[in-house]
Amino acid sequence: MTVAVKFAGAAVSTTRFTTNVSRAAARAVASSGVVAVPKGEAANSGKPSGITAASSQTSFTTMTAPYVQQRFMSGFAAGPGTNKVPSFADYTKERSNDSSRAFTYFMLGASGAVLTTAAQSTVHGFLTNLSASADVLAMATTEMDLSTIPVGKTVTIKWRGKPVFVKHRTQEEIDDANGVNLKSLPDPQDDASRVQMPEWMVVVGICTHLGCVPTTDSGDYGGWYCPCHGSHYDVSGRIRKGPAPLNMEIPEYVIEGDKLTIG
Predict the structure, then answer these.
(1) What radius of gyration, in Å, describes the C-alpha atoms of the chain?
(2) Cα–Cα distance, 223 to 219 (Å, whole number)
(3) Strand order across the beta sheet in which 200-204 lies
(4) In this structure, what are the phi and psi dihedrals at residue 31, rounded to the nearest 5 degrees?
(5) pLDDT digit string (tens) for 146-171?
(6) pTM given for the model
(7) Residues 168, 209, 229, 232: which is the catalytic one?
């Protein structure tokens, strides 16, 4: 026979007396809260709650309160000495792997698109600030009508803040430039490599010594002369005498008919 006593309130202890009654009956008694009295004893004997220690056939056992926390049951337990990995399937969300994977890919793609757009905007703004302004771009090229320059004359125009000499050479000047001995030049360079059309000489009007602006149609060789330190240039813009180490610079230009485009 089994007797289970449950005290009111929170979880306490349960006292169980075991005789010939089955364990199933004892569990039924404990769940119903009814106190069982050993067979042969009077119900009104005055004994408290059937807790009796009068029989030699009775065994005494104490167990914890019947309050049990609800827990998920894993597929198998992993304890000391086992190689099994616990299953956490009961703790995962109730969605398929495909839907979860699709959501993850969507979030990665959306985040990548946002980051790419932000990076593109940042780089575009940075490069825009570094680019040349409208007035600088307008000065990048300079055009001129060559038909307005008579033979034997030189015109000075402005290109990118620098003076450019455009000389309409005579045939005599062309022959003199081609007849120079290149070995006698400080910076040897033939005339044909410095012009696109023999009659038009286009050079940057800056002395290669200290950056002064030479005077036109002057000097010992009929080209340009820098009065600052006495550098003489011929009609091809080549240094012939003086401290300047190099010939005058030839800018990038294109001649189309009577139109000269520099830059």
Answers:
(1) 55
(2) 6
(3) 154-159, 162-168, 200-204
(4) -75, -30
(5) 999 999 999 999 988 899 999 999 99
(6) 0.50
(7) 229
